[in-house]
Design brief:
Residues 5-136 form the Enolase N-terminal domain. This is Enolase. The active site is at 214 (proton donor), 348 (proton acceptor). By secondary structure, the chain is of the alpha/beta class. The protein has 2 domains: 7-129, 2-Layer Sandwich (Enolase-like, domain 1); 147-445, Enolase-like C-terminal domain (TIM Barrel, Alpha-Beta Barrel). Helix content is 41%, strand content 17%. The strands form 4 sheets. Strands 5-6-7-11-12-13-14-15 form an 8-stranded mixed barrel, surrounded by 6 helices. A 3-stranded antiparallel β-sheet has the order 1-2-3, covered by helices on one side. It has a 3-stranded antiparallel β-sheet with strand order 8-9-10. Helix 5 packs across helix 6 and helix 7 (275-288) runs parallel beside helix 8. The longest helix is centred in the middle third of the chain and has 23 residues, at 182-204. The structure holds 2-phosphoglyceric acid and magnesium ion. The site of magnesium ion has 5 residues, from loops.
């Protein structure tokens, strides 16, 4: 007997910024399966479109139309098609893409379509009686040969459009690559986070311990070197020197204007840098601090700078990740591959709008010899889907914010659950650790 959808429901709920988002609940004979959609603040121009209602309610950010599209269009159409969930998700996602018909999902809304796609992925896993991460691994043609638990990159200092301080760069992340397990990595990160809080109190007073959208602190600092010095001091105070690496996401599309990068965009004093000057700044940071990953160092259409800097990043062995540049979109990935602009895909399911397309983007990145870095959004929910996604695709690393705030720790807690589940079942798994970048290709070639 096939497993079919018996109901598809949708609701308007809130995300971690208190803004409306779409929650979907699908039902099969196995039970009810729910998903809640995240939303970005530093959104790229090439992302699929999330529908917002406009008007007065919620300052125009309501998602009633997207909810209605699930209830009245997508849901009834899917129930009609009677897809067998044991066969998988691809047919369902392709059907929704065709039903929408637009190139960027602006007709039904990427937020409507993605909610259904994620909830259906959970229903598919249940139909096959396997965990979600196993199901997602099975949907990927090049699924790894063993389970890899990713290295979490914790965004402990928030800047850019995610905080109210004058820090230009958006994210400063710590990555416990020297840990032996994710449980140990999370413990170390939490210890560094608490040490960082004490240092911030000492330097700036208790008033400076407020946090940004992703749970990291947002003290009154402006220079990237100030942020990195605080982090290095915290790593040392927590006793984890040498075992923790750094990732930076400047989210530079946010401060690129008219050919210049304005490092003063959050203050009233402009500080305009050419792309060459900005590249020099990155080079100095990479030389001085243990930086292993740099995301969106240049704006989404500043191809020449990306191309130039990719040569530099390779020499320094720094992973160069495309977020706004690629928008989890295969067409952008092809363009970047042709230009040799980067070597890593930031994977955000809501940038493209279905789980299957996110998996296809992953597949393409792997074929190109790139790495894949799974990511949350700054507007998140307690949905922990991306934890299973990162294990399923075996990509070796993910970012889900600081070890603080419910919607961030939901992902880290789920990863510890998965690690323990695999241990309990005596299934071989390994924490990606120092090989986080190429964990997938290593596991594949074993
Ligand atoms: C990013 C993300 C997530 P946002 O730029 O990588 O950290 O931010 O969701 O606001 O786009
Ligand atoms: Mg980014």
């Amino acid at each position: 007997m096939p497993t079919i959808l018996t109901s598809v429901r949708a609701f308007q709920r809130l995300d971690s910024r208190g803004k409306p988002t779409v929650q979907v609940e699908v039902e099969t004979k196995d039970g009810k399966f729910r998903a809640i959609v995240p939303s970005g603040a530093s959104k790229g121009d090439y992302e699929a479109i999330e529908l917002r209602d406009g008007g007065e309610a919620y300052g125009g950010a309501g998602v009633r139309q997207a909810v209605q599209n699930v209830r009245e269009v997508i849901g009834p159409a899917l129930l009609d098609r009677r897809y067998d969930l044991e066969i998988g998700l691809k047919e369902i996602d392709s059907f929704m893409i065709a039903l929408d018909g637009s190139p960027d999902k602006s007709d039904l809304g990427a937020n409507a379509i993605l909610g259904v796609s994620m909830a259906c992925a959970r229903a598919c896993a249940a139909a096959k009686k396997i965990p979600l991460y196993d199901f997602l691994a099975g949907e990927l043609q090049s699924s790894p040969h063993r389970y890899i638990v990713p290295v979490p990159f914790f965004n402990v200092l928030n800047g850019g459009v995610h905080s109210g301080n004058t820090m230009t760069f958006q994210e400063f992340m710590i990555a416990p690559t020297g840990a032996a397990s994710i449980a140990q990595g999370i413990q170390w990160a939490s210890e560094v986070y608490q040490a960082l809080k004490s240092i911030i109190i000492k330097e700036f007073g208790k008033v400076a311990t407020g946090i940004g959208d992703e749970g990291g602190f947002a003290p009154p600092i402006t220079q990237p070197s100030e942020a990195l010095d605080l982090i290095m001091a915290a790593v040392k105070a927590a006793g984890h020197e040498g075992k923790i690496k750094i990732g930076i996401d400047p989210a530079s599309s946010e401060f690129f204007d008219d050919g210049y990068y304005d490092l003063g965009f959050k203050s009233d004093k402009p500080k305009k840098l050419t792309s060459t000057e900005l590249a020099d700044l990155y080079r100095a940071l990479v030389d001085k601090y243990p930086v292993v990953l740099l995301e969106d160092p240049f704006a989404q259409d500043d191809w020449e700078s990306w191309k130039y800097f990719h040569v530099v990043s390779k020499l320094h062995n720094v992973e160069l990740v495309g977020d706004d540049l690629l928008a989890t979109n295969i067409m952008r990935i092809e363009k970047a591959a042709e230009a040799d602009a980067c070597d890593s895909l930031l994977l955000k399911v809501n940038q493209i709008g279905t789980v299957s397309e996110a998996l296809a983007a992953t597949e393409r990145a792997y074929e190109l010899g790139w790495s894949v870095f799974v990511s949350h959004r700054s507007g998140e929910t307690t949905d922990d889907f991306i934890a299973d996604l990162a294990v399923g695709i075996g990509c070796g690393h993910l970012k889900a914010g600081a070890p603080c705030r419910g919607e961030r720790v939901a992902k880290y807690n789920r990863l510890m659950d998965i690690e323990e589940e695999l241990q309990a079942k005596k299934i071989g798994s390994s924490y990606a650790g120092k090989s986080f970048r190429y964990a997938h290709s290593q596991a594949k070639s074993e």
